[in-house]
Specification:
By secondary structure, this protein is of the alpha/beta class. The chain has a single domain, classed as Carbon-nitrogen hydrolase (Nitrilase/N-carbamoyl-D-aminoacid amidohydrolase, 4-Layer Sandwich), CATH 3.60.110.10. Strands 1, 2, 3, 4, 5, 6 and 15 form a seven-stranded mixed sheet that branches.
Amino acid sequence: MNIIKVAALQTTVYECKQDTHDNLKHLFEINNVKNADLVTLPEMFNCPYDTQRFRAYAEPPQGETWRICSQLAAENGVYLSAGSIPEEDETGQIFNTAYVFDRKGREIAKHRKVHLFDINITGGQYFKESDTLTAGDKITIFDTEFGKMGLCICYDFRFPEMARLMALQGAKVLLAPGAFNMTTGPAHWELLFKSRALDNQVYCIGTAPARDVSGPYVSWGHSIITGPWGDIIAGAGENECILTAGLDLDIIKKVRQELPLLAHRRKDIYNVEVYNDN
């Protein structure tokens, strides 16, 4: 069997970045993280989710948090999907950026959030990432010893074309660090991860920050892993935890043979394609 052992870390986001780094190192000392093949972190795991703070917490490419994550991946011999952090480029633009490191600590993927979270829900959440952030422009696929995986960030996952493009490019596992809030989380978080997994017959991993009701942005939490039948493989609550699961990639082949959704697409009538060079 081709099984990936996953540990999704639903971590606490601290005001002090050093506290976040120390907590991350502590969590990596726990056996079910050390024994994993793939470890995942939440969106903006080193920064309070607040547009006013993104610039203050932003780091250059290969900055402090990048180096710590690279080191943790290498020291523990795991693939690390290092959630996302605010990244500042040489022109001063701020991006919501996700990194993936291989077992030797080498960066093998980088994704800048493509769809910025600008919403205004009556009686609910108001948030405008575009006040601070610049959007990315790539579909992100990367190779591992287990095959191809896809990477996006939170609001990206609401757009079915993006997940479909990753699946069509060969991704069997979709990684989506996210920080849904107390309005959108109960309504859509589980539904989206089940739907994207079902529609594309892949595994999906949504890794969220732990809930902190005293913070400027209250995360729904509930990190989740869904399978190619649209089922929930594992799910968390709202508190800091480590969510573990084994993903049997052979099940994807079985499901696609029994219910060949992707093969039955009518490409003579419709298609999904990417316009820029990835």
